[in-house]
Design brief:
Blueprint: H1 2-10, E1 23-26, H2 38-54, E2 57-60, H3 70-82, E3 89-92, H4 99-112, E4 120-126, H5 130-140, E5 145-151, H6 167-183, H7 186-190
Parallel strand pairs: 1-2, 1-4, 2-3, 4-5
Amino acid sequence: MLKTLGKALYGLKDGTIEAPIRLVVPLGYGFTEAGLPDAARKTTFEAARIAEKFGAALAYCNVNYLGPGLEDKEDAAKKAIFKNFNLSRVIVADPCQNSVIEARNIKKAFQRTKIVTPSVIVVVCDWPHARSTRLIWNKVFLFSLIKVKSIEGEWDKTHLVPLQRSLPKWLVANILRHGALRILGTDWVAKKQYTQN
């Protein structure tokens, strides 16, 4: 029931992904001792598939607050997925602490490439993230058309961040974040970081 209600509110399935796509981004979810969380594996795979299909650049960010060495393991796991695809360009942005910093860091990394700001960007995320993802990316990339492709991600009960261990917690966290983005703005949300046990 909760999943059905959540999908109705936050499940933006974008079936209108068409050329010309210039940039595809898989949202980051960190890394656990068990490996990439399910949502991270699925968003990374789907972003690589879309980037290959449309000949677009792929840019991604790793998470830097979960513990020593996990950022490097996350990076290696994502690169292992990318090897299965023929990607024209992969851009690694500076690591992030939350979704606002992630979008800002990817924008900076893209600007460093000296390529013109992309006109169409596809961001791949889990469905509870979809609405706030669209809001964040529209504010960061003001002159780009943002398309959000949502996937179904399972919740990792061993994740280091308690909010990412179950659908109810994650859905509530995303609803609260969306409200904070609307009321307090991206600068306020950018200062927040998830906490561990």
